[in-house]
Design a protein that fits this description.
Elements (H helix, E strand, L loop, with lengths): L1 H38 L22 H31 L6 H22 L12 H24 L3 H17 L13 H37 L1
Length: 227
């Protein structure tokens, strides 16, 4: 069982990580580099002349882009281990895992790790106002755990008691509230910050969908090979 979890997670996580890195290079990195020009003071969008919304950005950087590719693969392998581990627990209780059902597992993972935390603490582009990192990390981890438990109760719980507890778990982090700065003083245009947040979420959703699809495929392929 452990070997099956490990191989499925490695293959699925590596493939999803490569896809995530490619999407980030095309859609997220240009916005990130653009924001860094405002963060460093090379561009100013208030108190000066109007500047182009499409500035010349740094090109391919072997060290930076290579490390981004490596870290993306490693992160999604880690996500894959968690996702396939959850699939294994469900399979032991009679749940059938396929590539199609894996897609749903992947989208659930996206909701847990990206979408639910972003509802109160959206992805932050460089140069925006921020508050204490430790407080944000504590809130993020609490939200991820509560959301995962809530979705688990909705998917596998029985009765109104379980579903009611799920709703409470899903809402609690947002009712408590994420830590936010006391004032907004960042130099980055809000249009750029919103574009970064939306593209980061879109890339995350695509990568998690592929992670679930690949994980379900490799898990089912191993079952078929053993049959």
């Amino acid at each position: 069982m452990f070997q099956k979890i490990l191989t499925s997670a490695l293959f699925a996580g590596f493939c999803a990580g490569l896809l995530a890195a490619a999407l980030q290079f095309v859609f997220v990195q240009p916005v990130l580099l653009h924001a860094e020009l405002y963060e460093g003071g090379d561009l100013v969008h208030f108190g000066g002349e109007a500047v182009s919304a499409t500035p010349e950005l740094p090109g391919f950087n072997p060290m930076r882009d290579g490390l981004s590719l490596l870290f993306s693969a490693l992160i999604y392998v880690g996500y894959g281990l968690i996702l396939v581990g959850a699939m294994a627990l469900a399979a032991e209780r009679g749940v059938t895992i396929t590539a199609r059902s894996g897609l749903i597992w992947g989208l659930a993972g996206f909701i847990v790790v990206h979408f639910a935390p972003a509802a109160s603490l959206p992805p932050e582009v460089p140069g925006v106002a921020y508050t204490d990192l430790t407080l944000r990390q504590i809130w993020w981890w609490g939200t991820v755990i509560a959301t995962a438990a809530g979705l688990g109760l909705i998917a596998f719980g029985r009765g109104w008691g379980a579903w009611g507890a799920a709703v409470i778990l899903l809402l609690a982090p947002h009712v408590i509230g994420a830590p936010h700065p006391e004032s907004f003083t960042g130099p980055v245009p809000p249009e750029l910050a919103s574009l970064f947040a939306s593209r980061a979420l879109a890339v995350g959703m695509a990568a998690w969908a592929m992670l679930g699809l690949f994980a379900g495929h490799f898990w089912a392929s191993d079952d078929n090979a053993q049959a």
